[in-house]
Design brief:
The protein is α+β, with helices and mostly antiparallel strands and 75 residues long. The chain contains one helix and three strands; from the N terminus they run βββα. The protein has one domain (1-61). The structure holds zinc ion (ZN).
């Protein structure tokens, strides 16, 4: 029975279990496929900063794929 909560940060339902405690049932770590947020079910999620779609896009753009950013090669 897997009951994965939606992402506390962006509200996406595209979440998965990333890791579980060595002793079963102590904690689970969840990950969001949408904004890449990671959290444990034991964390207090009250007051967590939620983010907008624009902020998710900006965060994704922090990791450009290899081969990009060669604009200075041409003088
Ligand atoms: Zn998320």
């Amino acid at each position: 029975m897997t009951n994965i909560p939606p992402c506390p940060r962006c509200g996406s339902a595209e979440t998965r279990v990333v890791a579980e405690s060595p002793i079963e049932g102590v904690w689970k770590m969840y990950g969001c496929n949408h904004c890449t947020y990671l959290w444990r079910n034991t964390e207090t999620l009250e007051g967590i900063k939620t983010i907008t779609e624009e902020e998710i896009e900006a965060a994704v753009l922090d990791f450009p794929p290899p081969g990009q950013g060669t604009m200075s090669a041409k003088e």
